[in-house]
Amino acid sequence: MAILFDKENRVFSLQTANTTYQMKADEHGVLLHLYYGDRVEYNMDYLVLHQPRCFAGVPYELGQDRSYSMGVLPREYPTVGTGDFRNNALIVRNTDGSECCDLRYVEHHIEKGKYQLEGLPAVYATQQEAETLSILLEDPITKLQVKLLYGVLEEEDIITRSALIINGGQEQVVVEKAASANLDLLAGDYDLIRFWGRATMERQFERTAICHSRQMIDSNRGHSSHQYNPAVVLAEKNATEDSGSCYGMLFVYSGNFLFEAEKDQFGTTRATMGLHRDGFHYPLAQGETLIVPETILTYSNQGFAELSHRYHRCIREHIVRGMYQHAVRPIVLNSWEAAYFDFNGETIYQMAEQAAELGIDLLVMDDGWFGNRQDDRTSLGDWKVNEEKLGCTLGELIQRINDLGVKFGIWIEPEMVSEDSDLYRAHPDWILKQPNRNPIVSRDQLVLDFTRKEVRDCIFEQICAVLDQGNVEYIKWDMNRSLDDIYSAKTLQGKVTYDYVLGVYEFAERLRERYPNILIEGCCGGGGRFDAGMLYYTPQIWGSDNTDPIDRIHIQYGTSFFYPISANGSHVTDVPNYLTGRNVDMSTRGIVAMEGTFGYELNPAKLSEEEKKVIKEQIKTYKTYAKLIQTGKYYRLTSPLEDKFAAWQFVSEDGSQAMLNVVKIDQKGHNEFSYIKMKGLVPDAIYADAATGQSYSGAALMNGGLPLSVWMRVHTSYQVVWNIV
Question: Which residues are catalytic?
Answer without folding.
Answer: 531, 611
